[in-house]
Amino acid sequence: MTNDDTYNMLSTPGEGLYKEKGSKFIASAFTVFSEDEAKKAIAEIKKQYYDARHHCFAYMIGPDKKNFRSSDDGEPSGTAGKPILNQILSKDVTNVCVVVTRYFGGIKLGTSGLINAYKTAARDALDNAQVIEKTINEIYSLEFGYPLMNEVMRVMKEENLEQLNPRFEMDCYIEFSTRKNEAERIADKFRSIYGVKTTYIKTL
Predict the structure, then answer these.
(1) Residue 131 three-state SS
(2) N or C: the chain end with fewer CB closer than 10 Å?
């Protein structure tokens, strides 16, 4: 089976530091699950280092890595945000935000100097964080009458599925989560039980 249903993310934050010609680059890498979370985290860093000149950043969100953004925050175009983003890509992680705060030392570093500084600080922070592998999971709901309970529970047990948000009222409702690569096969097992309504909800 191919592992196209896994991704990597940080399990702990990481910090990095790079110094060049008096300038200091402080990098922070942390986990975020939405753009709002990223914006809040960036705002916190700006508050923490309120007297710094630049707070350049990049973030990437989602297992598919399609939601990303980078900012040079006043540095010459392409010298800060992109090198930070490239380090996130190089580390092959997602659900991550890296902010590199610069204290200017009075001597200009030039384009290549800036790129190297932001790249090195970001890499340092990511290297100092712990990385874990996560699976991409799909969530389905099952709706059925009480007489089908034993059949549904037999499949739940066979596939080692955990009941999520169960509701047993006039009819029964259960959600389950499973790896993306296994989802269609397991959903088909439930669909084969006459009277069970199987509905895809979302991918996590």
Answers:
(1) strand
(2) N
